[in-house]
Design a protein that fits this description.
Distance between the termini: 15 Å
Largest sheet: 5 strands, parallel
Order of helices and strands: EHEHEHEHEHEEEEEHEEEEEH
Helix content: 25-40%
Number of strands: 15
Structural class: alpha/beta
Radius of gyration: 18 Å
Strand order of the largest sheet: 2-1-3-4-5
Number of helices: 7
Shape: globular
Strand content: 25-35%
Length: 242
């Protein structure tokens, strides 16, 4: 079973949202974690949803699709598939590093192709299953430090950077959480919060918190918040019931 792909739909047209919802429901291992009718609401909610991909309309009232992306901090941006009735935005879309560009009405075959493209993008732009890097190259002043992924305990968002926790050291890497998450083996790492990725075999305990969230205690003693929307996935990944 593949890790679930957490998807969000942003489109001001109810019929378009309904069609995409129906098509995504027929895709295996895709969880629809949010649906929004405008860019402003989506930009506000997305950082807390842990979405891997957003299917995003371009033309919407007030805040369009590109404006919504710009409203998100780089570290909080999921992969993007633009879904629009207009072909003229394609160049700008791919300039925004879109994973795909779909023209309405979207057919099931084309959507399936797009979902698989997103999965490959998340797997580090490689179509080979299990092809994940064993080390990360991290600029450190005038040097390039090589960090074995096996020594990586967790990742924390820090503005436009991610902070790699490696033993007692921390290193900053200019990378988005979504991109780094896509590069890490999902059998070993799990995003538990919009700002936190943990190595699963270094989790010591999970403590429930008020409001439905929880606190992940690592073997090193480090404690990291886990979002309510990630709690079920965390329990599954650790071998518990959802």
């Amino acid at each position: 079973m593949r890790p679930a792909l957490r998807a969000v739909i942003v489109d001001d047209e109810p019929l378009a949202r309904a069609r995409l919802t129906r098509l995504l429901a027929s895709e295996a291992d895709v969880d629809l974690v949010g649906e929004f009718a405008d860019g402003a609401s989506a930009a506000q909610a997305l950082p807390g949803l842990g979405a891997h991909v957003v299917f995003l309309d371009v033309q919407m009232p007030e805040v369009d699709g590109f404006g919504m992306l710009q409203a998100l901090p780089p570290a909080e941006r999921p992969l993007v598939v633009f879904v629009t009735a207009h072909a003229q935005h394609a160049v700008r879309a791919f300039d925004a590093q879109a994973a795909d560009y779909l023209l309405k009405p979207v057919g099931p075959d084309r959507l399936h192709e797009s979902v698989e493209r997103v999965r490959r993008r998340r797997a580090g732009l490689s179509a080979t299953p299990g092809a994940y890097p064993e080390r990360l190259a991290v600029p450190d002043g005038q040097h390039l430090r090589v960090v074995p992924v096996s020594e990586l305990e967790c990742v924390r968002a820090q503005g436009n950077y991610v902070e790699l926790c490696v033993g007692k050291r921390t290193l900053l890497l200019r990378e988005t959480m979504a991109n780094l998450e896509a590069r890490l083996d999902p059998r070993l790492f799990l995003r538990v919060h919009r700002s936190h990725i943990v190595r699963l075999d270094l989790v010591d305990a999970v403590e429930a918190c008020e409001g439905g969230g929880c606190l992940v205690r690592m073997r090193s003693g480090l404690r990291l918040a886990a979002g309510r929307s990630h709690r079920a996935a965390l329990r599954r990944a650790l071998g518990g019931e959802a």
